[in-house]
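User: Can you recover a sequence for this backbone? Please restate the input before giving your answer.

Assistant: Of course. Working from this structure:
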């Protein structure tokens, strides 16, 4: 696949990735998401210097970079599911590009991007998601 064709393909996948992520997050309202939604709400009123402590109070985790990333979205008053869906697009596009680099067939791409662990990182494992994205997928 040439470079321009790949870019066009990715551009066509972005709204699909966003929509799928948004739907998954809209239905996933229990478990970890209860704490994450409360933390995100609290972050919208917190100072940046307090973001790590706020996130830790709600999730029992100490990830300064995750706190900063979530604080940015919360302080801009972006709906949490929309904000996380944007980050999920980065995750899925990164994974897609990584798999394309190794010239895997389309069916393998589809199976990989829809497997349980990828869906878990998109929904329940928010702190892990940022680690994967920022590590360069």
């Amino acid at each position: 696949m040439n470079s321009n064709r790949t870019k066009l393909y990715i551009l066509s996948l972005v709204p699909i990735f966003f929509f799928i992520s948004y739907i998954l997050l809209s239905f996933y309202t229990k478990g970890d998401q209860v704490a994450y939604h409360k933390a995100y709400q609290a972050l919208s009123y917190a100072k940046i210097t307090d973001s790590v402590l706020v996130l830790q109070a709600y999730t029992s985790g100490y990830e300064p970079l995750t706190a900063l990333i979530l604080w940015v979205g919360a302080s801009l008053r972006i709906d949490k599911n929309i904000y996380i869906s944007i980050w999920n697009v980065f995750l899925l596009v990164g994974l897609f590009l990584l798999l394309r680099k190794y010239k895997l067939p389309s069916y393998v791409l589809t199976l990989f991007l829809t497997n349980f662990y990828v869906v878990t990182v998109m929904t329940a494992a928010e702190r892990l998601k940022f680690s994967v994205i920022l590590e360069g997928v």
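That completes the design. Residues 3-27 form the longest helix (25 residues).
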